Amino acid sequence: MNSENKLPQLLYGTSILGISICTLLILYFMTFAILGLFGVPEKGRGLTFEVPISLNEPSAYFHPKSLDASFSVSHIEIQKANLEVKPQAKAYFQSLGYFHASLYVGFFLGILIFLAKLLKYVKEGDPFNPGNSYSIRNIGLLSIGLGVYEFLFMFGITRFFHHKFTLDHGHTLEYPSIWDMNLVAIFLGLVFISLSQVFKHGFELQDLESQTV
Amino acid sequence: MAIIVRLDVELAKQKMSLTELSERVGISLKNLSLLKKGRVRAVRFSTLNAICTALQCKPGDILDFEVDT
What number is the average pLDDT over the span A117-139? Predict the structure, then answer.
């Protein structure tokens, strides 16, 4: 292997490793998400959960950390009026967080799969392959999807739990604003989609070159 | 495509094989074969120059144009 192919090889290996880690994380999250549906009590399982609700932000919203499988309802009091107090309510809440984490990591898994496919062709010295244009476009679409999904999840959680939960000091969940959206992911998605057009043009030029004597 | 490649005619006139022409002009046999069959999209002037030099002919002897009916 010459020195020119070492970087693509390294990146390809890293993306494969990332795919494996994401797959394991999804299995881990989904396991606890499904267990939560059955209302498995938190006590006795040795699990701790924290809801990272920030009361410092003007629009506090429920936003489970995607890669940190820790959710708790320690800062939330269930309003007596609008919600029947169920012993499994806490587990359902946690289950929701795990489902969200699974989907969140799922987006990254999709991006890594297309990235590995792209790097495989680059490693073989064929970057301007028609499949690469689609891979880059799909990475962009997944990135945009991730940003939109995050916002929709925050909005949905707030919509569902708005009057059912109060936070410390009587605060309630606030609807997320446009600035709470993951604009970086959406912006990068647009960049990748634009880049896919460049690779598509590159393939056409390479194809013309290959048929020129 | 209306452009016809008559490379085989010139090769026959010069009694030269495609392999020998390939060695003289420095183009792969595969590409020359594709050119002979008219399955290329473009030809460089440098290639045309090398072929004409090797076959002692003019570009018009190798390339022809026929309107599709």
Answer: 89
Residue whose pair of structure tokens reads 């919203």 in the numeric block: A61
- Whether pLDDT at A211 is above 70: yes
**Residue keyed to tokens 């984490």:** A101
> What type of residue sits at position A148?
V
Give CA–CA dist A78/A82, Å, rounded. 9
Tokens of A23: 């797959």
Q: At what angle do helices A130-161 and A183-210 cross, to 10 degrees?
A: 170
Lookup: tokens for A194: 């634009």
pLDDT digits (tens, 9 = 90+) for B8-67: 999 999 999 999 999 999 999 999 999 999 889 899 999 999 999 999 999 999 999 988
Tell whether A212 is within 8 A of chain B (Cβ): yes
Residue B32 to residue A213, Cβ atoms within 8 A = yes
Q: Which residues of A touch B39 (CB under 8 A)?
A: 211
Give the whole-angstrom CA distance, residue A118 versus residue A135.
6
Find residue A78's DSSP bridge partners: A165
